[in-house]
Amino acid sequence: DIVMTQSPLSLPVTPGEPASISCRSSQSLLHSDGHNYLDWYLQKPGQSPQVLIYLGSYRASGVPDRFSGSGAHTDFTLKISRVEAEDVGVYFCMQSLQTPLTFGQGTKVEIK
Amino acid sequence: QVQLVESGGTVVQPGTSLRLSCAASGFSFSSYAMHWVRQAPGKGLEWVALIWYDGSEEYYAESMKGRFTISRDNSKNTLYLQMNGLRADDTAIYYCARGRRAARPSELDYWGQGALVTVSS
Question: Who among B44, B100, B105 is closest to A99 (CB)?
Protein backbone atom coordinates (compact mmCIF):
# COMPACT_ATOMS: atom_id res chain seq x y z
CA ASP A 1 0.00 0.00 0.00
CA ILE A 2 1.12 3.58 -0.62
CA VAL A 3 1.72 5.41 2.64
CA MET A 4 0.83 9.10 2.74
CA THR A 5 2.52 11.36 5.29
CA GLN A 6 1.38 14.92 5.96
CA SER A 7 3.08 17.72 7.85
CA PRO A 8 2.43 19.57 9.97
CA LEU A 9 -0.46 17.82 11.72
CA SER A 10 -1.57 21.07 13.33
CA LEU A 11 -1.32 24.50 11.76
CA PRO A 12 -2.37 27.68 13.55
CA VAL A 13 -2.88 30.42 10.99
CA THR A 14 -3.47 34.17 10.93
CA PRO A 15 -6.20 35.47 8.60
CA GLY A 16 -4.69 37.16 5.59
CA GLU A 17 -1.42 35.26 5.90
CA PRO A 18 -0.30 32.39 3.66
CA ALA A 19 -0.30 28.76 4.77
CA SER A 20 1.26 25.60 3.41
CA ILE A 21 0.78 21.86 3.99
CA SER A 22 3.14 19.14 2.81
CA CYS A 23 2.23 15.62 1.72
CA ARG A 24 4.69 12.87 0.89
CA SER A 25 3.96 9.47 -0.62
CA SER A 26 5.97 6.28 -0.13
CA GLN A 27 6.12 5.78 -3.90
CA SER A 28 5.77 7.93 -6.99
CA LEU A 29 2.24 9.00 -7.88
CA LEU A 30 3.18 9.78 -11.48
CA HIS A 31 1.05 7.80 -13.93
CA SER A 32 2.05 6.96 -17.49
CA ASP A 33 -0.57 9.51 -18.62
CA GLY A 34 1.66 12.24 -17.21
CA HIS A 35 -0.54 13.13 -14.25
CA ASN A 36 0.31 12.86 -10.59
CA TYR A 37 -2.60 11.15 -8.84
CA LEU A 38 -2.64 13.24 -5.68
CA ASP A 39 -5.75 14.98 -4.39
CA TRP A 40 -6.45 17.39 -1.55
CA TYR A 41 -9.63 17.49 0.54
CA LEU A 42 -10.94 19.81 3.22
CA GLN A 43 -13.29 18.61 5.92
CA LYS A 44 -14.86 21.62 7.60
CA PRO A 45 -16.16 21.14 11.15
CA GLY A 46 -19.28 18.97 11.16
CA GLN A 47 -19.24 18.48 7.38
CA SER A 48 -18.31 15.83 4.85
CA PRO A 49 -14.98 16.16 3.04
CA GLN A 50 -14.89 18.19 -0.17
CA VAL A 51 -12.32 17.99 -2.93
CA LEU A 52 -10.11 21.06 -3.37
CA ILE A 53 -7.38 19.92 -5.75
CA TYR A 54 -7.13 16.86 -7.99
CA LEU A 55 -4.31 15.42 -10.10
CA GLY A 56 -1.83 17.40 -8.03
CA SER A 57 -2.66 20.89 -9.25
CA TYR A 58 -6.14 21.15 -10.76
CA ARG A 59 -8.60 23.18 -8.71
CA ALA A 60 -11.99 21.55 -8.34
CA SER A 61 -15.09 23.40 -9.47
CA GLY A 62 -16.01 26.27 -7.18
CA VAL A 63 -12.76 26.23 -5.21
CA PRO A 64 -11.37 29.73 -4.60
CA ASP A 65 -8.17 30.57 -6.44
CA ARG A 66 -6.36 31.23 -3.16
CA PHE A 67 -5.93 27.44 -3.02
CA SER A 68 -3.19 25.91 -5.16
CA GLY A 69 -1.53 22.52 -5.41
CA SER A 70 1.95 21.72 -6.62
CA GLY A 71 4.52 18.95 -6.61
CA ALA A 72 5.32 15.73 -8.42
CA HIS A 73 6.29 12.12 -7.86
CA THR A 74 6.42 11.85 -4.05
CA ASP A 75 6.40 15.44 -2.74
CA PHE A 76 3.33 17.64 -2.86
CA THR A 77 2.22 20.92 -1.34
CA LEU A 78 -1.11 22.63 -0.79
CA LYS A 79 -0.85 26.40 -0.45
CA ILE A 80 -3.41 28.93 0.69
CA SER A 81 -2.28 32.35 -0.47
CA ARG A 82 -4.29 34.31 2.10
CA VAL A 83 -6.12 32.33 4.76
CA GLU A 84 -9.72 33.22 5.50
CA ALA A 85 -11.74 32.26 8.58
CA GLU A 86 -13.84 29.84 6.50
CA ASP A 87 -10.72 27.79 5.65
CA VAL A 88 -10.55 26.18 9.10
CA GLY A 89 -10.90 22.43 9.24
CA VAL A 90 -8.87 19.30 8.55
CA TYR A 91 -7.01 18.98 5.26
CA PHE A 92 -6.30 15.52 3.86
CA CYS A 93 -4.17 14.44 0.94
CA MET A 94 -5.11 11.22 -0.85
CA GLN A 95 -3.42 9.17 -3.53
CA SER A 96 -5.77 7.98 -6.28
CA LEU A 97 -3.12 6.20 -8.35
CA GLN A 98 -4.06 2.73 -7.24
CA THR A 99 -6.21 0.78 -4.85
CA PRO A 100 -6.29 0.79 -1.95
CA LEU A 101 -6.72 4.55 -2.08
CA THR A 102 -4.88 5.96 0.93
CA PHE A 103 -5.13 9.20 2.87
CA GLY A 104 -2.69 11.24 4.87
CA GLN A 105 -3.31 11.62 8.60
CA GLY A 106 -4.86 15.05 8.18
CA THR A 107 -3.70 18.57 9.05
CA LYS A 108 -5.89 20.57 11.40
CA VAL A 109 -5.93 24.24 10.43
CA GLU A 110 -7.22 26.67 13.01
CA ILE A 111 -7.17 30.41 13.47
CA LYS A 112 -4.61 31.75 15.94
CA GLN B 1 -27.45 19.25 -8.39
CA VAL B 2 -25.54 16.13 -7.40
CA GLN B 3 -26.88 14.52 -4.24
CA LEU B 4 -25.75 11.42 -2.39
CA VAL B 5 -27.87 10.36 0.56
CA GLU B 6 -26.77 7.47 2.76
CA SER B 7 -29.15 5.48 4.91
CA GLY B 8 -29.12 2.37 7.08
CA GLY B 9 -26.74 3.50 9.79
CA THR B 10 -27.66 2.24 13.26
CA VAL B 11 -26.37 0.51 16.39
CA VAL B 12 -25.62 -3.20 15.97
CA GLN B 13 -24.05 -5.92 18.05
CA PRO B 14 -20.65 -7.42 17.22
CA GLY B 15 -20.82 -10.27 14.72
CA THR B 16 -24.01 -9.08 13.07
CA SER B 17 -24.64 -7.77 9.55
CA LEU B 18 -25.85 -4.47 8.18
CA ARG B 19 -26.49 -3.02 4.73
CA LEU B 20 -25.98 0.64 3.95
CA SER B 21 -27.59 2.33 0.96
CA CYS B 22 -26.66 5.48 -0.91
CA ALA B 23 -29.30 7.08 -3.11
CA ALA B 24 -27.83 9.14 -5.94
CA SER B 25 -29.51 11.92 -7.90
CA GLY B 26 -28.65 14.86 -10.11
CA PHE B 27 -26.23 13.01 -12.37
CA SER B 28 -25.98 9.96 -14.60
CA PHE B 29 -25.28 7.41 -11.87
CA SER B 30 -24.46 4.59 -14.30
CA SER B 31 -21.57 6.60 -15.77
CA TYR B 32 -19.44 6.91 -12.63
CA ALA B 33 -17.45 4.70 -10.32
CA MET B 34 -18.59 4.86 -6.71
CA HIS B 35 -16.73 4.52 -3.43
CA TRP B 36 -17.31 4.00 0.26
CA VAL B 37 -15.02 5.82 2.71
CA ARG B 38 -15.27 5.65 6.50
CA GLN B 39 -14.19 7.79 9.41
CA ALA B 40 -13.95 6.44 12.95
CA PRO B 41 -14.95 8.94 15.66
CA GLY B 42 -12.33 11.66 15.90
CA LYS B 43 -10.06 9.92 13.39
CA GLY B 44 -8.97 10.33 9.79
CA LEU B 45 -10.42 9.03 6.55
CA GLU B 46 -10.16 5.37 5.50
CA TRP B 47 -11.07 4.18 2.03
CA VAL B 48 -13.32 1.10 2.09
CA ALA B 49 -14.28 0.00 -1.40
CA LEU B 50 -14.70 0.95 -5.07
CA ILE B 51 -17.08 -0.32 -7.74
CA TRP B 52 -16.86 0.51 -11.41
CA TYR B 53 -19.66 2.29 -13.28
CA ASP B 54 -21.16 -0.95 -14.54
CA GLY B 55 -20.49 -3.07 -11.45
CA SER B 56 -18.02 -5.27 -13.32
CA GLU B 57 -15.11 -4.67 -10.97
CA GLU B 58 -14.88 -4.25 -7.19
CA TYR B 59 -11.91 -3.35 -5.02
CA TYR B 60 -11.59 -3.42 -1.22
CA ALA B 61 -9.32 -2.33 1.57
CA GLU B 62 -7.53 -5.38 2.89
CA SER B 63 -9.17 -5.26 6.34
CA MET B 64 -12.63 -5.39 4.76
CA LYS B 65 -12.06 -8.06 2.13
CA GLY B 66 -14.30 -11.04 2.68
CA ARG B 67 -16.51 -9.20 5.16
CA PHE B 68 -17.80 -6.22 3.15
CA THR B 69 -19.41 -6.26 -0.31
CA ILE B 70 -19.99 -3.21 -2.45
CA SER B 71 -22.71 -3.36 -5.08
CA ARG B 72 -24.90 -1.08 -7.13
CA ASP B 73 -28.27 -1.07 -8.85
CA ASN B 74 -28.04 1.35 -11.76
CA SER B 75 -31.75 1.01 -12.44
CA LYS B 76 -32.41 2.41 -8.96
CA ASN B 77 -29.47 4.87 -8.86
CA THR B 78 -28.40 3.26 -5.61
CA LEU B 79 -25.09 2.11 -4.15
CA TYR B 80 -24.89 -0.47 -1.37
CA LEU B 81 -22.43 -1.69 1.22
CA GLN B 82 -23.16 -5.06 2.78
CA MET B 83 -21.19 -5.44 6.01
CA ASN B 84 -20.93 -8.84 7.70
CA GLY B 85 -19.15 -9.94 10.85
CA LEU B 86 -19.10 -6.42 12.22
CA ARG B 87 -16.53 -5.59 14.87
CA ALA B 88 -16.18 -2.74 17.34
CA ASP B 89 -13.46 -1.20 15.19
CA ASP B 90 -15.91 -0.91 12.29
CA THR B 91 -17.66 1.84 14.25
CA ALA B 92 -17.51 4.88 11.98
CA ILE B 93 -19.32 7.32 9.78
CA TYR B 94 -19.60 5.70 6.35
CA TYR B 95 -19.59 8.08 3.39
CA CYS B 96 -20.49 7.23 -0.16
CA ALA B 97 -18.59 9.26 -2.71
CA ARG B 98 -18.57 9.61 -6.47
CA GLY B 99 -15.37 8.95 -8.38
CA ARG B 100 -14.76 11.28 -11.30
CA ARG B 101 -13.76 8.40 -13.56
CA ALA B 102 -15.94 5.50 -14.65
CA ALA B 103 -13.52 2.60 -14.46
CA ARG B 104 -10.39 3.52 -12.53
CA PRO B 105 -9.49 5.14 -9.23
CA SER B 106 -9.77 8.94 -9.26
CA GLU B 107 -10.56 11.83 -6.99
CA LEU B 108 -13.84 11.77 -5.08
CA ASP B 109 -15.70 14.78 -6.33
CA TYR B 110 -18.98 14.47 -4.41
CA TRP B 111 -19.65 13.04 -0.96
CA GLY B 112 -22.77 12.18 0.95
CA GLN B 113 -23.48 13.39 4.46
CA GLY B 114 -22.54 10.03 5.95
CA ALA B 115 -24.26 7.23 7.89
CA LEU B 116 -23.16 6.42 11.44
CA VAL B 117 -22.62 2.75 12.21
CA THR B 118 -21.99 1.86 15.84
CA VAL B 119 -20.94 -1.67 16.72
CA SER B 120 -21.40 -2.28 20.41
CA SER B 121 -22.71 -4.93 22.76
Answer: B105
Which residue, among B14, B60, B51, has the nearest Cα to B30 in the 3D structure?
B51
Q: What is the DSSP letter of B56?
A: S
Q: B79: helix, coil or strand?
A: strand
Q: Does B116 touch chain A (CB under 8 A)?
A: no
Q: List the pLDDT tens digit at each of the 121 positions of chain B.
A: 999 999 999 999 999 999 999 999 999 999 999 999 999 999 999 999 999 999 999 999 999 999 999 999 999 999 999 999 999 999 999 999 999 998 888 999 999 999 999 999 9
Name chain A contacts of B111, Cβ cutoff 8 Å: 48-50
Among residues 8-37 of chain B, which lie with CB inside 8 Å of chain A? 35, 37
- Contact call for A49 and B107, based on CB within 8 A: no
Distance between CA atoms of residues B48 and A70, nearest Å: 27
Q: Report the alpha-carbon distance of residue A78 to residue A90 in Å, rounded.
A: 13
DSSP H helical ranges for chain B: none
Q: In terms of CA atoms, which chain A residue is nearest residue B39? A: A48
